[in-house]
Amino acid sequence: MSDRQQQDALSRTALGVFRLNGQFLAVSEKLAEPAGLTAAWWQVLGAVLPEPLPVAGIARVMGITRQSVQRIADLLVREGLAAYEPNPAHRRAKLLTPTEAGRAAIGRIEPGHAELAALLARELGGQEAFDETVRVLERLSGALDAVGARYTAPEAP
User: CATH number of the domain at 25-106, out of 1.10.10.10, 1.10.340.30, 3.40.720.10, 3.40.50.300?
Assistant: First the structure.
């Protein structure tokens, strides 16, 4: 593969992922709205469903800034959908955890989420194809993590 082909592949990949991000955000807003959530609120609540996490940990998992997560976490706490609890590992970095109201709101998203998952699986050609799509995206994310950690942009001419 030539340098030009590799650059074209990178550009097409980036544009495709940017488009996917917009598409996922749009459909997530539709799914979250009946539950009284936004896509961003759902994203942060979803990150802490398995276990409470500090804001910095949520930001790492989601790949966004700590400040963005902090703003949303504070709103979720204010709305009674999440709560801060002490962090035994770090006195100042409290853990965010969903409240029963937060879990109930996420639960109201489940039927639409299940329907969308089924529609996507069907559109992609079945569950096996859907699983392969997920594997490719996870592989791309892992590769970008590895490359990004050691990549430094060349100096401008």
Answer: 1.10.10.10
